[in-house]
Every structure is written in structure tokens, then in C-alpha cells.
Write a structure and sequence with these properties.
The protein is of the alpha+beta class. The chain has three domains: 3-69, Uridine Diphospho-n-acetylenolpyruvylglucosamine Reductase, domain 2; 74-222, Uridine Diphospho-n-acetylenolpyruvylglucosamine Reductase, domain 3 (2-Layer Sandwich); 230-333, Uridine Diphospho-n-acetylenolpyruvylglucosamine Reductase, domain 1. The chain has six helices and 20 strands. The chain has helices at 30-38, 94-103, 208-222, 243-252, 270-276, 306-323; strands spanning 3-8, 20-27, 47-50, 56-57, 62-69, 74-79, 83-89, 128-129, 132-133, 138-145, 150-155, 176-186, 230-234, 240-242, 258-261, 265-268, 283-284, 287-289, 296-299, 332-333. Strands 6-7-12-10-11 form a five-stranded antiparallel sheet. The longest helix has 18 residues, at 306-323. 40% of the residues are buried. The mean pLDDT is 95. Bound molecules: flavin-adenine dinucleotide (FAD). Flavin-adenine dinucleotide binds next to strand 3, strand 8, strand 12 and strand 13.
């Protein structure tokens, strides 16, 4: 096992901040994880797992071990006339897996095209886009318990998926290394075109490939490419508020819109709130709020993530003061 010391995290986070980790280890299989737990010199160190680093903001050096996930492999293990089941190594790149599904005519995850990051991180916050959440295509999540030094299997129900949340972000946070995800995909089309930017597509002429291309085109037109401009996508979750607060805001701002969540709650756009507070496009020295999307904080060359964290707190404060709504970070702040 190769243990790197005092290693830069620059190439392991999409914000492009340059903090260091006390130790850094590349994980290629379950044995690598178990070797760390059995190694008395390092087993008690704090541990942080990184896939693509596209949902993390480092604000200081990490005083522990960063485990960089490189567990690979795509294995179709079941097929009938309607579905396929595929076991995927958690270190596989998410979008490359979507591309594999599209090429093989496996339906389900095409709306999640071009989301950065690894397969293993996808269940953690139940990634979603364009009317689809990954929870609907997950059969099992296979984890390695870092305390008990053994493998466990979580089926879809026991993952307790919610909007941008799961058991792996709640009471099992930091306890497990997700090593594999088993997906169930359809062999027959069931396109989800409910999202407003997809509504004009011609249902009869669409194909998996053309839908994926369309989604990539839309995403490229409004989100910055982290390889060019440091960012972690949406910094905050969309808040879910009560109908009565929604009505109060609507009486002043006619242009607010939302999606009903249950009987009495409404999910509204965090980007809309941030824009109304005047943050969209703001540049503060080497950081800022993206000009095309107020939910995306961007790094123009700042070495430390601390200033980005401070900016996120300023934004939350102004949203709280203006609308009495508390924004919750989607990005993991370390
Ligand atoms: C431009 C851009 C657009 C984005 N758009 C979307 C979007 O549309 N929808 C969406 O849902 N998200 C979006 N995201 C966020 C991000 O891509 C997803 O959250 C993605 O799943 C993160 O994957 P990752 O491998 O980079 O995770 P990382 O950033 O490496 O890790 C995220 C968290 O998961 C933990 N973790 C990672 N891998 C494992 C593992 N194997 N086992 C246990 N814990 C693990 C980490 O410790 C950390 O807490 C976007 C990000 C960017 C930069």
C-alpha cells in the first residue's frame, strides 16, 4: 500500500483549491480498505473518501487520511426481456457509466448525463437532474464498514433516499466506504420529459442518444465546466418551505414558482432567492457567484476554500434576512 504524505489535494477537488492532506492513499479494492483498518499506525486517523471531489469544499489542510476511490469495473450480472442488473465499481466515472448505458440501450439514467463525479458518490446525495433521481435505478449499495471491517449490503429501501439525501449522509455518515452499486435499468424506453427545457422534444422521434445529447447541450449552456472554472455545481439545496410562507413571498414577488412536496410544503429555487438578494454574477477578488446561475459559487484562482465558505455564509445570511429561509449547503465543507 502506497501511503503519500503531505499530499496536495489540488487535483482531487473541482473547486481547484490547494489544501494538503496528512496522508493520501489510492483505493483500488476492498483489501486496500481492510489493510488500512488493520494497520495500527494509521487506523485511528480521521478518514475522508473522495471520488471526483465535485461536491466537496476544502477550507483547510486535512489532518488525516484522504482515501481516493479508484475501485473500477462494470459487470452485467442479470438480464431478462425487460431489465438488466449491473454491478459497478464505485470509482467509475459517473458520466462514463451513463454513456455506457446509452450505448447499450439501457434506459433510466440518461437524464443524469454529465453530472461530474464517481458512481460511488451518486447514492450519497441521491443525485438528481431533469426530473430523475438515481434512487429509482438503484438495487443495492455495497459498503465496507470502516469500524467493523466488513462488507454490508443496503437495498434501495434501507438507503432511505430523499431529495439530495440518504442514510449515507445522515446516521451512517463517514462510517462506510461505498465499494459498488448495483443498478436496475430498463430495456424499454420510458423517457422523462416533464422538465420545462425538455417539454418541446418530439416524443416520437427521440432516442436515448439524442436525449443525452440534448441534456449535455443544456448543461453546458448554463453550468461552468469545473476543468475551466472551479466550482461544485449547486452550492445549496433548494429549500422546502410551507405553503403559508410561499403565499407571503408570492404576494410580493409574482415571479416565484415552486413544486408541491406533499400537501403543505413547496420546494422553491435557491437560485431564485440568491438572485433576488443581488448575488448573481458578483465577483469578489478571486471568487464569486456564477453569472449564468446564482446557485453556483466559482473560484477564479483562490488557493484556499475558506473565502468561498465565507461567501456562502454571507449569501445564506442575506437570504435569511430577506425571506426568513435558511439555506442548507449541498456541498460537503471540510
Ligand atoms: C458542474 C457541476 C454540476 C453538478 N450537477 C449536479 C446535478 O445536476 N445533480 C446533482 O445531484 N449533483 C450535481 N453536482 C454535484 C456532484 O457532481 C455530485 O454530488 C456527485 O455525485 C459527486 O461525486 P464525487 O465523486 O465528485 O463526490 P465527492 O465530491 O468526491 O464526495 C462527495 C461526498 O461523498 C463522499 N463519498 C464519495 N465517494 C464515496 C464512497 N465511495 N463511499 C463513501 N463516501 C463517499 C465524500 O466523502 C463526500 O462527503 C454537480 C457538480 C458540479 C461540479
Amino acid at each position: 500500500m502506497n501511503i503519500l504524505q503531505d499530499s496536495s489535494l489540488l487535483n482531487f477537488n473541482s473547486f481547484g483549491v490547494n489544501h494538503k492532506s496528512k496522508y493520501l492513499i489510492i483505493i483500488e479494492n476492498r483489501d486496500d480498505i481492510s489493510n488500512i483498518i488493520n494497520n495500527k499506525d494509521i487506523r485511528n486517523e480521521k478518514k475522508l473518501i473522495i471520488g471526483g471531489g465535485s461536491n466537496i469544499l476544502f477550507t483547510k489542510d486535512f489532518d488525516g487520511i484522504v482515501l481516493v476511490n479508484k475501485i473500477m469495473g462494470i459487470d452485467k450480472f442479470y438480464e431478462d426481456e425487460n431489465i438488466v442488473k449491473i454491478k459497478v465499481g464505485s470509482g467509475e466515472n459517473w458520466d462514463e457509466f451513463v454513456s455506457y448505458c446509452v450505448e447499450n440501450s439501457y434506459y433510466g439514467v440518461e437524464n443524469l448525463s454529465l453530472i461530474p463525479g464517481s458512481v460511488g458518490a451518486a447514492p450519497i446525495q441521491n443525485i438528481g437532474a431533469y426530473g430523475v433521481e438515481i434512487k429509482d435505478f438503484i438495487d443495492n449499495v455495497i459498503v465496507y464498514d470502516l469500524e467493523e471491517n466488513k462488507e454490508k449490503i443496503y437495498n434501495r429501501k434501507s438507503c432511505c433516499f430523499e431529495y439530495r439525501n440518504s442514510i449515507f449522509k445522515k446516521n451512517k455518515k463517514n462510517k462506510y466506504f461505498i465499494t459498488h452499486v448495483d443498478f436496475i435499468l430498463n430495456k424499454k424506453p420510458n423517457y422523462i420529459l416533464s422538465y420545462k427545457e425538455l417539454k418541446n422534444l418530439d416524443k416520437d422521434r427521440i432516442s436515448l442518444k439524442s436525449l443525452r445529447d440534448e441534456i449535455i447541450k443544456i448543461r453546458n449552456s448554463k453550468l461552468p465546466n469545473p476543468k475551466i472554472l472551479g466550482n461544485a455545481g449547486s452550492f445549496f439545496k433548494n429549500p422546502i418551505i410551507t405553503q403559508s410562507l410561499y403565499n407571503d413571498i408570492k404576494s410580493e414577488y409574482r415571479d416565484i414558482s415552486g413544486y408541491m412536496m406533499g400537501e403543505n410544503n413547496i420546494k422553491i429555487s435557491a437560485a431564485w432567492l440568491i438572485e433576488k438578494c443581488g448575488w448573481k454574477g458578483k465577483v469578489l477578488e478571486k471568487i464569486g457567484v456564477y453569472k449564468k446561475h446564482a446557485l453556483v459559487l466559482v473560484n477564479y484562482g483562490e488557493e484556499s476554500g475558506n473565502k468561498i465558505k465565507n461567501l456562502s455564509e454571507e449569501i445564506s445570511k442575506s437570504v435569511k434576512e430577506k425571506f426568513n429561509i435558511k439555506l442548507e449547503a449541498e456541498v460537503k465543507i471540510v
